[in-house]
Amino acid sequence: xxxxxxxxxxxxxxxxxxxxxxxxxxxxxxxxxxxxxxxxxxxxxxxxxxxxxxxxxxxxxxxxxxxxxxxxxxxxxxxxxxxxxxxxxxxxxxxxxxxxxxxxxxxxxxxxxxxxxxxxxxxxxxxxxxxxxxxxxxxxxxxxxxxxxxxxxxxxxxxxxxxxxxxxxxxxxxxxxxxxxxxxxxxxxxxxxxxxxxxxxxxxxxxxxxxxxxxxxxxxxxxxxxxxxxxxxxxxxxxxxxxxxxxxxxxxxxxxxxxxxxxxxxxxxxxxxxxxxxxxxxxxxxxxxxxxxxxxxxxxxxxxxxxxxxxxxxxxxxxxxxxxxxxxxxxxxxx
Amino acid sequence: xxxxxxxxxxxxxxxxxxxxxxxxxxxxxxxxxxxxxxxxxxxxxxxxxxxxxxxxxxxxxxxxxxxxxxxxxxxxxxxxxxxxxxxxxxxxxxxxxxxxxxxxxxxxxxxxxxxxxxxxxxxxxxxxxxxxxxxxxxxxxxxxxxxxxxxxxxxxxxxxxxxxxxxxxxxxxxxxxxxxxxxxxxxxxxxxxxxxxxxxxxxxxxxxxxxxxxxxxxxxxxxxxxxxxxxxxxxxxxxxxxxxxxxxxxxxxxxxxxxxxxxxxxxxxxx
Lengths: 335, 271
Known about the structure:
heterodimer; A: alpha/beta; 2 domains; six-stranded mixed sheet; 34% helix; B: mainly alpha; 13 helices; globular
């Protein structure tokens, strides 16, 4: 086996110009991605943006049509075995045998990854403890809740303590408590120095946990940076107004447009309006005055930082996930 | 872990050379464990063949057929045919199981592990070999109860069981390739048994080849089911076994080699 290199490359994943088509559909249209070792990098994007395809290419499950991907310096196409020995994959669908117990699953996967039987058993017990599934190890996975499956699946990817963990939408479909538990486990791993690359649709997760976020849309990365850098792409701050009567939302949007020249967006049904603003307090005052003059009662209003959601929507455009042609929008925020 | 240790492989396993054997054993062990936790899964592959053997022999066993080796009783001719056709009918289980796995998250897990690629197929076949062996023992024991006899003694009995196991496993390889090529589990569940039934009927499993319709005879003569059934009949009656043995050997090697390689490729590519 390729043993020691005294100076390790500081890059866990280095992808250059990766492209992949499925028939006429362009899944990836030339992606460059660098994941520095020891970081948690999030790939953010709507359904069909190419996140899963990129992750599968990195995990040697699928071949790129063009471009080059190296994992800790090993090319995924030329040295897949070396790559597989260095990654743990937690796929979009849980990679467990439902008919087996949790312990049997972990031991099987650990042994197939190269551990000796005894080592696999003790590692399974340790990881189950760490991820809070120790009590269920002797039960068939069929009886597990969704959150327990996800955590056992993560344990399975950690059996050999690989330096890179690749997670494809690890928290999709989990209730808030299970998501929290999974994130605590991932935070613990990052503290231990494990590099993580994950895909997510939950912007708030990327915001809270990721060191770097890459926004993918229609097979290309349209923005990269830290969560706060991405939020900075949306101009200024956001004025948020909550109306007393949700049914007045449309009227309020019209009043704000005509009387205060503000482009407000109404959240359907909630009576909540948001609008970007560069001059904060002035906008707040003029919006409040315009609404008051038209007799629309405000329940609450305030200025806040834009959320990553707003940055994301501004970057990917409103019709996310729909069947659009694979022409990528140019980088930068829409006005 | 520091960046320096990140360059090292995770805890590494044995040399790749041993991995095929080791990983195949682990995969076979997985299926055996599942079976231990769900013993009900044995009912179909073990009970049904015995029921069919008893029914077929009880209904048709007393007919008399001339022109084949052995005595005049159809029973002596039919029982080896039933043993072999049963292996063919059991084989699609392997293909369907692999196809079910191929579409699951577990397959992605296996593909992302530094394990031996063919082990997924070979491990499954090892498990099926065990099933075929249990099946053969039960069938032969039941057959003795129905008046079947083997003139070549205990060695002949063991040889008959081995033929059922090896032939069944080679048809399983073909079923693995067929299932993975079909790719859709719903379709495969309906389609897979059709060629198995056709293979059984266009052979000497139920009737001597000269009794078949004229258009069937050339196919039946080269059909591996014919070679396997005839070889079992030769072992039972003490007749000449060389010709069917050579034919069957060629078939087994061909089935294991060609669809085997294609099935492993399919498994890897069906990601």
